[in-house]
Amino acid sequence: MAINVRNVMRFWLLVCLAGVAVSRPVFAHAGEMCERASAACPFVAGLLAQREGYGRAATGGEGGEVVSVTSSADAGPGTLREALAHASGPRWIRFSSDMTITLLSQLRVPDNVTIDGRGHRVTLLDYGLGIYGSNNVIVTHLSIDGRLRTFSQAINVANRSSNVWIDHLDLSRFADRLLNVKNGSTDVTVSWVKFHDDDKVMLLNNITSKDLFANYDRDKSARVTVHHCYFFNTVQRNPRAQFGTFHLFNNLLENWDFYGMSFSLQARALVEGNIFSNKSERDCVEPTFFPTVEGVKANYCKNIADAPARTALPNGGSDQKNFERTAQLYADGRDYRAYLSVKDNLYLLDAKPVLQSYLPENVPAPPYCYTYDPPTPRLADEIRQFAGNTDGPAPRTVCR
């Protein structure tokens, strides 16, 4: 049945003038209205159809109320902070217009929530999102820019969070990291995200003890898929991964200043169909220095000439020295290297391969169907165009 948008809006205006408290419906597209995020609602079904990877079970706020963010203030009525704080059940959060939100502190994301910026240009400044001990979270179509002002992260998935899907975000300039998945968190997919203008980009698990394996039993449960992401003008950790099970496919790494990827400490990683592109002679676009939590003023411009030969660190290289220093006390027969299955990756311009398969029989095959593209310059162009806070290409039907 066709909906007369003008009449609907007139109705809600009269309701508001009458002083009646209501939960307003959200318009996904002209003529489309859903008061609840049911599976039959087009903007819900359209997004959920794109899930894949280890985070494919995430449903976010499906079945819950639809809430519209109407204010770009940090807090108060109509704000994103209020929408998250009052989510007592499943909640699908959308935005009423383009907006830039300067945050005064990190936003906490509870269970069963979708933050959906589709249809508008929504940017968070200075702080990002903390997903702590939360299950079933989807975040899509936002830009988060730290402006190198706070020692925080754009997205921090921690404390045994699970079933998380991070999709079509533009993440940049955080003094700590752009993305963490750590502390027993698992079943996470990161797709079509643009990571750029940052130093230590992504950490998949985190060592916090002299005993490198102190939290091995907890963190080995991590399962993370990273696909069709664009790492551009970064320094390192694209990603750095330890302990868990990881699947990285069809990502584009371009113009890193120190190194590309890193795997260590018995991580189990399938690394396939990724594209590495770098030049040994190019201008450095880093700031004068990156602030660090250690108080060190870091700049890596001097490493650019050698960076193309470091598409990755040697297997285990990021933790080898610390491992050897403490092996007699803590290692208990463990390995500082990762188990790797490396295949079908493409190296462009001056980029050189580093990663090689190591005990690939210890790397589990993905337990899901996934859309895989042969790595080509054409795929690189598509990732440049569609990764980030932008509408992506048409959903694929090919399944590997």
Automatic annotation (TrEMBL):
Catalytic activity: Eliminative cleavage of (1->4)-alpha-D-galacturonan to give oligosaccharides with 4-deoxy-alpha-D-galact-4-enuronosyl groups at their non-reducing ends
Record's keyword annotation contains Calcium: yes
One Pfam family recorded for the sequence: Pectate_lyase_4
Top-rank taxon: Bacteria
Residue ranges constituting the Pectate lyase domain according to the UniProt record: 98-282
Cell compartments where the protein resides: Secreted
Obligatory cofactor(s): Ca(2+)
Keyword Metal-binding attached: yes
Keywords: Calcium, Carbohydrate metabolism, Lyase, Metal-binding, Polysaccharide degradation, Secreted, Signal
Pathway assigned to this chain's UniProt record: Glycan metabolism; pectin degradation; 2-dehydro-3-deoxy-D-gluconate from pectin: step 2/5
Family (UniProt): Belongs to the polysaccharide lyase 1 family.
Name of the protein in question: pectate lyase
Organism per entry: Paraburkholderia unamae
Record lineage: Bacteria, Pseudomonadati, Pseudomonadota, Betaproteobacteria, Burkholderiales
